Structures are given as C-alpha cells and as structure tokens.
Amino acid sequence: QMADPFLYHTGERSRYGCLGHEVQIEHIKAYVCRPSFFTDKAVIVIHDIFGWMFPDIRYIVDLIAGHGYITICPDFFKGTDPWKTTDHWADFADWMKDHDPMKVDKEADVVLKYLKEQCGAQKIGIVGFSWGGMAVHHLMLKNPQITAGVSLYGIIRDSEERYDLLNPTFFIFGEKDHTISYDQITLLEEKLRQYCKVAYKIKVYPGQVHGFAQLKPEDMKPHDKPYIEEARKDMIDWIKLFI
Fold it and tell me: Per UniProt, what is one GO molecular function of this protein (predicted)?
C-alpha cells in the first residue's frame, strides 16, 4: 500500500476563471494564454499528474503570461485520463508506467514547432510541476531548443546521465516533501557541481510540502503564503534572467 504522497487535499480547490483559450496542435490539445502585446518569448508549462485542465496549472499559465510571455500548457497525456483524486494510490505505479515523464520528447517537439512557426517565438523556456518537474529535468538534458528550465519538485532518479544539463535549470523543492528525500537533493547538488557545465540553482523552501508552489492565492494557508509567493517570484526571475 502506497501512502498518499500529497499532504494537501487536492479535491478542495476554488474554481478558476481562465484568461486564455484552448487550441489543437497536431495530435495535442493545449491551453494558451498570451500577453496583451507582441512578444517573441514563450514558456511551456508542464502539468502534474492531475493534467492540463486542473485549475492550479491554468492559474500558473495565466500568471506567467502576465509577465509578458506566450504561455502554453499542452496535454502531455494526449487525451488519456489524468490521475484523479478518487483513484487509489495502490494503482499509482501502474498508472505511471503508462504516463512516463521521460517520454515527452515528441510532444515537446510538436509544441516547440508551433511556438516558433505559429507564434513567432525566438526564445522558449519551460516550467514543470511534480510529474512535470521530472519532464522538465529530462527535457533540459535532451532538447537544446529550450533556453532555460524550472523544475518544481521533480527529480529523475534512476539515470546516470541526469546531471549534464544543456541549458540553465533551476530546481525548486519543499523541505517537507515526503516524495523527495533530502538525500536525493544533496546528491543532485553534489553531482551538478561535478558534471554540470551551465548555470543551475537548487533551492529548498522551509516547511513546504509536495505541490506547494502551484496553489492559487485563495487556496493558500497564511503561514505558507510567503514561501509560495517567494518560490513563484524565484521561478519568474529565473525565466527573466535567460528568456
């Protein structure tokens, strides 16, 4: 029996009125939000296990777009069901086999092509949460078209080549995340120091559990709010630094 890895209750969420719209790109649906002015800078947001329609992730897309980026969250599950709050954690390992965060290359290429050819994007960054954080880590090792990345609470754990990042990457973690041990973060730090030839950063936010950084303002607990806001500002600052 696998323990529920999320310490917050994902079912208790306020609704969210989205600012963007949905598009179809080849075999993938995506949620897009654009700033009110022209820009050639874009950010891909990779959702967590709850998928591209989850209110939190759409809020994040709109938030990043508000900083002046064409922002897009593609459905990396390609129309298959995301994990649901009613699903049983005993089935999670099997579900993950069919939803591998390291098999996102084809979809990433489709979205990169769309951003370059249809939206005029010259520089493209990537941000991902949990499942999406693992996907970001993978893509920052594999895809030189992505200028910079932010991986939030997702680590590729079982690959020897996970430290030779192609472009600047920022890893965000919560101190109380019981899906990622402190030892794993320490190992990541040691190995990046050894092998990584580009800019990178690791930051652990005090007292924060898995999934902390994507909560909407009305769903934040008062004592977590400063850390959530700090993580979000750090995320945006990293993107602005390179894109």
Answer: hydrolase activity
